[in-house]
Amino acid sequence: MGIEEAKKEIAKCAKCGKCRSVCPVFLETGDETRVARGRISLAEAIFQGEIYYSPELRDYIYSCKKCLRCQAICPSGVDFSTIMDALLEGIEQNMGIPPLARLILRHVLPRRGLFDFVLNLVSFGQNFLPGERRGSLRHLPLFFMGRRWVPPLARQTVLNKHRHTKKLANPRMRVGFFVGCLTNYVYPNMADSLINVLNKLDIEVVVPSKQVCCGIPAKSLGDTTAAKKLAQKNREVFEAEDLDAIVSGCGTCTLTIKRDYLKMLGDSWRPMHDKIYDINVFLEKFTQYETAPIDSTVTYHDPCHLRWGQGIIKEPRNVIKRCATLKEMETPERCCGGGGVFSLIYRDLSMMIGDHKIKAVEKSGAEKVVTSCPGCMLQLSDLAAGKNLPVETLHVVELLDRTLKKNGKEGVVAGQTVEVST
Ligand code: SF4
Ligand code: SF4
Asked: Containing domain of residue 368, as a range?
């Protein structure tokens, strides 16, 4: 089914080249084989048997960020992600993936306890590695994160800390929290804030402790067997709870468990699919709250998988405007260069893309850069540390948690929006 679906999408491409004007990878490299149009031509050739899978082809395909920017602008409506999925599966089936990656994807990620153990072990080993940058950035396994400087691993994971649901007397709703790996291991404060905010709004939050990785790393390497195993495991875990909704604070996780699980698990996932919300959308749709805005300027970065993948643009801004003064940066929609497997393999390219972003953050003059995806938070804090830029990186719900009135109902004072001059 993958190749046949992909061929239908390939046939739609008019070769107009509009994707070249926005692709973050093409804008840095100027290389036609690293933009949607070029990759579609490669896909056509490989599916017709005119070329073969090779290390060069794999490089052209792996260097796509899967940011969906091209898909969002494409006048012919090409579903580029379907083509990419077929190419990645073809690479995995014809060339394989590194044995260590296969081992982690198929045998470590589905076992939460084993994943905890492995990360803690490697993190402990890193205590003996030299070097520290701006105090807080080191620790997470270097084998896992390349040369990346990152915040330390959480002393207690979110799934352990919140394994027992905080019961509310008369909750309005009962929601499940899909945590995601980065939040679980690196950004527990974000999870605390999300739970705190919802609890203040009389919404009970269940954090199923047996949930596993959403599967995006497996999917990014074309290992659909591993991705399906993770999807199935999460389905069992969340279907076992009686939930009104499922929320996530990670744009990539939300996109994966909504869009990709529907493809992988079929229509039987539809009832759960319809209950899944990005936290900003959930707040806008189901809650009313009051804030005491802080005297601070904030700029917002659009995560690609929220903006291009799900069309979520105004909801996070609406939250921010009630918490502080929003000062839009130039091109907030421009990719930050982060993103799982891509930023590990193409570290230099990731930093080149990110350089535009951090310059825009700096030019905005804002004291805080807020986003709604832990992957972007990781990249933004890394970029800021590299430039010695004293800007705080936060998730939208962390900002809201700081400003939400007790019980969410004690007088509204709205923030204001300021457009940065360009
Ligand atoms: S914008 Fe769409 S139709 Fe045009 S070249 Fe890119 S993928 Fe093809
Ligand atoms: S998904 Fe992003 S990186 Fe990949 S071709 Fe499209 S715009 Fe470029």
From this structure: 288-419
